[in-house]
Amino acid sequence: MLNFRRCLALTGLALSGGFAALAAPPLTVVQDILFNADGTRYNGIATISWPSFEASDSSNIPARTFTTQIVNGLLRVQLTPTTNALAPATYTVVYNSGGATQFTEYWSVPPSTVPLPVSSVRIGGTGNVVGGGGSGGGAGGSTAIAISDVTGLTAALALRATIGSGYTVSRAAVIDATGSLEGALGNASDCVHVDGTSGACGSGGSVSSGSVFVDGEVPAGTVDGNNAVFQLGNIPNPLASLTLFRNGLLLKQGSDYTLTGNQVTFASNALPQANDVLLASYRLGVTGFVFVDAEVPAGSVNGSNTAFTLSQTPNPAASLSLYRNGLRLRANLDYTLSGSNVVFLPASTPQSGDTLLCSYRH
Length: 362
Description:
Layout: H1 2-23, E1 28-36, E2 44-50, E3 53-54, E4 60-61, E5 64-70, E6 74-79, E7 91-97, E8 100-107, E9 122-125, E10 129-131, H2 153-158, E11 173-175, E12 181-183, E13 191-192, E14 198-199, E15 213-217, E16 229-231, E17 243-246, E18 249-250, E19 257-260, E20 263-266, E21 278-283, E22 291-295, E23 307-309, E24 321-324, E25 327-328, E26 335-338, E27 341-344, E28 356-361
Antiparallel strand pairs: 1-6, 1-10, 2-5, 2-7, 3-4, 7-8, 8-9, 11-12, 13-14, 15-21, 16-20, 17-18, 17-21, 19-20, 22-28, 23-27, 24-25, 24-28, 26-27
């Protein structure tokens, strides 16, 4: 009976020891040689305390305080890692020598299979003792904090743009398809489009021709004196940006033709005749500039009035295109421009029945 009871007792101890081994959380060894500021080895005690927390393996670590001796500078303790704990936790370490508290510091312990020096776990403190076994500085210096020690920092950093292989200083930044920052390619005088491509200013990537301006296009359609309907390669944007010339004369939208989408329909009295030459220019949408299209200058067209006013001041002045009965006039030969005021020279004074049209930027 005695042997049976002894067997049960030993079995119970073995099982309880086995459960304890299974339940024990992983430990990290903190080991270092501590020195005083004068180079002598530190002797004293370190009192280590911590709040209750839950380790990475869900082990419950109750709050506790214990004291370890530091003899001839040697410090060695085993602690449960806190950097990967299910709830943030830190160790408070109070150094005492000669019966007096010298300083306090705080440790954040990562998981490790090799012993770590104090400099690898220290996250703050003040005092005059330094660890000799690590690469970090003393307790009074600044200490790096692991990214994982800061709640939410890892996730926040994952959202930031990273530097790509094409990143270049002194260039406009472009975000590539992977979310990385690249340097915009192109000449220094190029403009960067919203899709990250670059090219001569005024060009864009949304148009197959690579440009937001269409110049000198020949509308598609039969020029035979009977056909009235012609097609443009694109839809002008805005519609009023279309300048349509017939044998070099500017036609007036709404009088000589109408525009619906990219379809031009000529009036019956303005049908293009065989051998006529049609040319069109227009925009497909431009940002950064304001355009005035097909404006009729304000002023009396009576054969004697020479002063007319535009609704805006052309900027630059050379952007003004002024037409009289479809013929383009020349600045300083047919008229002068001052701000928004147009003054015709005597030989070019508009006569009754003349049509004036102008376009410009501002």
